[in-house]
């Protein structure tokens, strides 16, 4: 046969060698979720030790302090788990369920914000509202707080094979943002509706938008390679 016995081109030979490497089994989505949660908890512990609980906590009852944080936490974990399941072909949520859950994040944040604002009447300690909204300190804190867990999530997602990388990246980043926002709720003393939606919510949207761009770039590279 003509050409028999010849070595394949160098690029093809390297590709074949990569394909023949042992494949490490992928951790279950719940196990990968736990890794993200541990990293997020570590970052939250550092911030909480530096900032402490919100100084107006005496003005709030325990429901207004802990329930909004717990709901954000659960919603964030759900979105991250949804995104990590996308990395296992055949395990992702249907389109309606997936995108409906993704849209539910901002709606949930708005409802929680409205509930707290109505119960407190937008009250805050003197001088804190101007400081928080003027310097956008909450926005910077929330983004920085989310970065460690976001990097770990992206690394775990990249090791999998999400069929919808844009959706997976967006949902996971939004979930990480909600985890960070749960901590900010325990720190930030401002209950003004506009501050929570624009500053806190803006941080979640920023993280999701950046992750969506990363997922789009990854999808284009994957399709170009095929």
Number of strands: 0
Helix run count:
8
Strand content: under 5%
Uncertain residue ranges: 1-5, 125-135
Question: How many strands, which pairing sense, and closed or not: the largest β-sheet?
Answer: none
The figure for the number of domains is 1
Q: Over the alpha carbons, how many angstroms does the gyration radius reach? A: 22 Å
State the shape.
elongated
Q: Helix/strand-derived class?
A: mainly alpha
Q: What is the helix content? A: over 70%
Terminal CA distance reads: 29 Å
Output mean pLDDT: 81
H/E series, N to C? HHHHHHHH
Which key phrases capture this entry?
mainly alpha; 8 helices; elongated; 226 residues; disordered N terminus; 75% helix
């Amino acid at each position: 046969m003509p050409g028999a016995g010849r070595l394949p081109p160098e690029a093809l030979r390297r590709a074949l060698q990569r394909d023949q490497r042992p494949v490490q089994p992928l951790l279950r989505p719940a196990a990968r979720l736990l890794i993200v949660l541990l990293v997020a908890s570590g970052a939250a512990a550092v911030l909480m030790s530096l900032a402490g609980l919100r100084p107006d906590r005496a003005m709030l009852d325990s429901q207004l302090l802990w329930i909004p944080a717990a709901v954000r936490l659960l919603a964030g974990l759900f979105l991250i788990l949804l995104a990590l399941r996308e990395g296992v072909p055949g395990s992702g949520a249907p389109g309606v369920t997936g995108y409906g859950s993704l849209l539910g994040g901002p709606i949930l944040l708005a409802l929680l914000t409205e509930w707290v604002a109505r119960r407190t009447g937008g009250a805050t300690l003197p001088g804190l509202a101007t400081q928080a909204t003027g310097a956008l300190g909450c926005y910077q804190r929330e983004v920085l707080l989310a970065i460690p867990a976001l990097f770990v999530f992206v690394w775990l997602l990249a090791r999998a094979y999400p069929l919808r990388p844009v959706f997976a990246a967006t949902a996971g980043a939004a979930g990480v943002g909600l985890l960070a926002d749960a901590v900010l709720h325990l720190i930030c003393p401002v209950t003004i509706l506009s501050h929570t939606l624009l500053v806190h919510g803006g941080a979640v949207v920023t993280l999701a938008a950046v992750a969506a761009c990363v997922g789009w770039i990854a999808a284009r590279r994957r399709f170009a390679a095929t």
